[in-house]
Amino acid sequence: MDPDNIYADPRTAEVADDFTIDQNWDAYTDEEHGTWDILYKEQLSCLPGLACDEFMDGLDALDLGSGGIPDFAKISKKLKKLTGWEVVAVPCLVPDDVFFEHLANRRFPAGNFIRKRDQLEYIQEPDVFHDVFGHVPMLTNPIFADYMQAYGKGGMRSAGYDRLKALASLYWYTVEFGLINTPKGMRIYGAGIVSSRTESIFSLHARSPNRIHFDLERLMRSDYKIDDFQASYFVISSFDELFKATVDTDFGPLYERLNPCFDYTATAVLESDRVYTRGTQEYGRAGGRKKGIKPV
Ligand code: PHE
Ligand code: CO
Q1: 151 lines ligand 1 (CB under 6 A)
Q2: Which residue intervals of 84-132 are DSSP H helices?
Q3: In the chain, what are the domains?
Q4: Where do the H-state alpha helices sit in the chain?
Q5: pLDDT digits (tens, 9 = 90+) for 98-141
Q6: Tens digit of pLDDT for each residue in 144-174?
Q7: Fewer Cβ atoms within 10 A, N terminus or C terminus of the chain?
Q8: What is the DSSP letter of 216?
Q9: C-beta of 255 in contact with ligand 1 (< 6 A)
Q10: What is the pTM for the complete model shown?
Q11: Ligand 1 centroid to 180 CA: how many Å?
């Protein structure tokens, strides 16, 4: 959807100051529900053994595969009991300050529209499948749920530092594209990965990307890709590690130290990195998605 013209969709007739709208569940067509079912089935056929247990458990707990696009009111009821979070509908990506305030109040803003059938593989604007299938299962995990709220509060506190890019990078490399090293092996927890079949395989198994241990400041200094598979993935050992590293650090001095621009490119590997896999970067070098390169 064109974010500059959210009113073009008749479903978004009334948008509140916090950008929330009625999900208008009754307005989904059979084709739209069918799109959810196709995507759900496809992900379920590849995620076992790739996604972490916390994600798979969350999927089960919320019953997201009971048929069609889930009703946010029903998910919220379950989620509220589990971790106190709820899902609210928004018509598009919301401004940063609005987004932070929702998270800080344990509300996850999810797009209510679903991709068209010719966008099953890839869309750049997050739709209801990405937002709900990708993000909401992890919100059933108490530590992750607290991390997301802390991120929102941190975002609100960051106003005035002019370091939003660095904070966005943290979100990107954890919430969206994070990997976790578990006793069973490396697994995915990032929403951008679990909601994409091709990136689920690429992030864990391709030769191309770097896989580097999570380091807060290193990661906040690193650029990322917004329109293709990541050139580097950052790996945590536990959600506790992620929570402690971010929540126990006062970002004030950190923002002061950071340069206005990213110091490291998305492909960089540093001497100080704990590297799991040093990628060949052959996918990106060959031109990536735009050139139709096969993920390797
Ligand atoms: N500790 C951070 C701060 O001082 C807040 C934060 C927590 C940010 C968790 C991101 C994630 O601002
Ligand atoms: Co997302």
Answers
A1: yes
A2: 96-104, 128
A3: 25-291 (1.10.800.10)
A4: 30-46, 53-62, 72-83, 96-104, 128, 142-157, 164-171, 191-194, 197-205, 216-220, 239-247, 251-257, 282-285
A5: 999 999 999 999 999 999 999 998 888 899 999 999 999 999 99
A6: 999 999 999 999 999 889 899 999 999 999 9
A7: C
A8: H
A9: no
A10: 0.95
A11: 20
